[in-house]
Write a structure and sequence with these properties.
By secondary structure, the chain is an all-alpha fold. The chain contains nine helices and no strands. Helix 4 crosses helix 5, helix 4 packs across helix 6 and helix 8 packs antiparallel against helix 9.
């Protein structure tokens, strides 16, 4: 069976008269583990070690390992810390946020604007936090 797009599923959901039937027919398309799967794929593609990523993200080690195992969903800021820890680019970071159910980075938000600038200029977390601090924004990690 051909995989349907998110848009197709949303349209079917809007029109469905019986939610139970819809849910049972489409349950296998729901991606509850999308974040952990994406994190592992990124680790593999970039040949990264979890310990290095965690150290570079300023996250608590136990908490971060739980994120990688799919046992925890971090808040958006902690997820951005992982993005910097993995040295993700802008597009990869947007995908990471989406996979966890968060809003993508938005250039009209001051915090997000700084993050976008930092990502496209390959800033590390320390330099990004310096910029966030300078503009009075919350820090990452």
């Amino acid at each position: 069976m051909e995989e349907r797009s998110t848009h197709q599923l949303e349209e079917e959901l809007k029109l469905c008269p019986d939610f139970t039937k819809y849910y049972e027919e489409n349950r296998n398309t729901m991606k509850e583990d999308a974040l952990a799967v994406l994190l592992q794929r990124l680790l593999d593609e970039k040949d990264l070690k979890r310990a290095d990523v965690i150290r570079n993200s300023n996250l608590n080690e136990v908490y971060a390992y739980q994120i990688f195992q799919g046992k925890r969903i971090p808040d958006r800021t902690k997820l951005l810390g992982l993005a910097f820890g993995m040295k993700l680019n802008f597009d990869e970071t947007q995908q990471l946020l989406k996979s966890a159910g968060y809003a993508p980075l938005y250039a009209k938000r001051s915090f997000d604007c700084i993050i976008i600038y930092s990502l496209v200029n390959n800033y590390d977390l320390m330099k990004t936090n310096d910029l966030l601090y300078y503009y009075g924004e919350d820090l990452i990690g």
